[in-house]
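Bench notes, bay 3.
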Amino acid sequence: MPTLGEPFANLGHAGAGELARVQVSPAARAGYEALVRDSVMPEGTVVVLSHAARSGQEGSLYLMEKQRGAWSYVVLTPRGVIVEGATGRCGACHEGGVGDSLFGLPRASGATR
């Protein structure tokens, strides 16, 4: 999955890395780029937020997948190992998302096609 926009400051996942990059499954890319209140992503949408330190050292990966109308969450180490018990607060925070539990790209970042 290609990265959308430019890396931006990570404001939501403390300790994961200072910068974040978003990747979205192809079928949901346009909807994510145009995310507004009441947006609904299609079934099977996958959103990955990868993190890195400003030094370039890779950080944690946060993955969301939409199945049967609900989002599931997974946190992975930079090596791809699942971090057990790390998703306890994901859903509660994402309920405050702009649309369909997602926050979208920062306005200054824009999105590349």
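Next record in the batch:
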Amino acid sequence: MHHDYVASNPQNCSYEFYMPTVKNMNISFVKLGEEECELCLLHDVHTKDCSAMHGCDLCSSWDKHMESAHVSRMHYKNDLKKVADDEPSCVNRLTV
């Protein structure tokens, strides 16, 4: 990711600066497919057998879970915008 960032941004940003900045922003890099939580994985398996579709307890708790995840993502994006607006240099470009 650092290599891609440096390639697309002419401003010099060392790996030593990049990684702690990304970590402080609570950004992590994972392989696709590994970012789902246990409830989401359980729900994926459950929906194949569930005839109620959003009427059973697991489906209802998953709906609440997804609503919470949406709100968390919104707050996360707002926090990133605050960092981008408040901090100059390399940090600003990391959030764009």
